[in-house]
């Protein structure tokens, strides 16, 4: 046995393997130790203080700073443990938050410089329908279940509508609306109802008009005409819209470039035997 050990000790390959295993083990040990080390340096403390100031508009005192650092340590330990346990794998919420964070980072790199007035005016002219105010109605209605009731109610209201709010049946939405566009009314009561109401004249009870809820007797109090927007009074709104549009374009281009850096392979499904 001693002779065998002496022979093995003289074999360079054995020593090479032993030293390699020792280095591998030491590296793994150092990596394990590194995952247990949490470094608190000055930039981190300054970041925590800046976050605190942004929320409270004042600097933290010594006790509050200790609590901020301890809170960071707690969060860092829990995050590392979650990663060690694989809790971040196949979690839909975490995947979405990470994807959103990358998008935010991409957006932060974009130029937010406003263009000159001429560029904004061109943007305004190209998107004029966004700023024009459509025709709107201020109107009211009384709701009933069927068409026959609605016809009788219309006749009664034409004679006297002093207590119109007490007529008909309870309705889950408002009985009266102010400056409502046809698009807004369509979302609320349906496209056919909105078209029928906007086709009516103001000043008298009209109908019956059917919606998805039932039948309505309608009175248009005021028809507010559409207006064409002017550039100067809303230039700040145009500037915000321009920045948002440019941000979306830049984000789309950044995504296009990022997408070209990845290859998607479709793995064929193996035939079942």
Automatic annotation (TrEMBL):
Segments forming domain PpiC: 134-222
Keyword entries, A-Z: Isomerase, Rotamase, Signal
Catalytic activity: [protein]-peptidylproline (omega=180) = [protein]-peptidylproline (omega=0)
InterPro entries: PPIase_dom_sf (IPR046357), PPIase_PpiC (IPR000297), PrsA_foldase (IPR050245), Trigger_fact/SurA_dom_sf (IPR027304)
Enzyme Commission number(s): 5.2.1.8
Cell division listed as a keyword: no
GO molecular function, one term: peptidyl-prolyl cis-trans isomerase activity
One Pfam family named in its UniProt record: Rotamase_2
Family classification: Belongs to the PpiC/parvulin rotamase family.
Name used for this protein in its record: Parvulin-like PPIase
Species assigned in the record: PS1 clade bacterium
Lineage of producing organism: Bacteria, Pseudomonadati, Pseudomonadota, Alphaproteobacteria, PS1 clade
